[in-house]
């Protein structure tokens, strides 16, 4: 398992947390949102990225943190 930080453009309000139940959402001063959580494998990572794409959220970066 790996902890990832996924940054997207724009600030998501708390109502978005239902779409990302296993992730902590943090808004940054630069009008971005960071999703931080544990991802078990590449399949789960691709599922998260597909969800972000399907919701039309602009992806900035994906960073493993451990």
Beta-strand portion reads 35-45%
For the report, how would you describe the main beta sheet?
4 strands, antiparallel
Structural class of the helix and strand makeup?
alpha+beta
Strand order of the largest sheet: 2-3-1-4
So what's the overall shape? globular
Give the domain tally: 1
Tell me, rounded to a whole number, the average pLDDT: 95
What is the succession of H and E elements? EEEHE
Give the uncertain stretches in residue-range form.
none
Distance from N terminus to C terminus (CA atoms, Å) equals 9 Å
Text of the CATH class: Alpha Beta
Plain-language structure description:
- By secondary structure, this protein is of the alpha+beta class.
- It has a single domain, classed as Alpha-Beta Plaits (2-Layer Sandwich), CATH 3.30.70.
- It has one helix at residues 42-54, and strands at 2-9, 24-27, 32-39, 59-64.
- It has one helix and four strands.
- It has a four-stranded antiparallel β-sheet with strand order 2-3-1-4, covered by helices on one side.
Write the layout of secondary structure elements.
Elements: E1 2-9, E2 24-27, E3 32-39, H1 42-54, E4 59-64
Antiparallel strand pairs: 1-3, 1-4, 2-3
């Amino acid at each position: 398992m790996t902890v990832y930080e996924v940054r997207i453009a724009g600030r998501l309000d708390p109502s978005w947390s239902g779409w990302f139940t296993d992730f902590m959402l943090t808004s940054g001063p630069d009008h971005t949102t960071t999703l931080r959580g544990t991802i078990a494998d590449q399949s789960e990572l691709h599922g998260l990225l597909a969800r972000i794409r399907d919701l039309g959220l602009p992806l900035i970066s994906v960073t493993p943190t451990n």
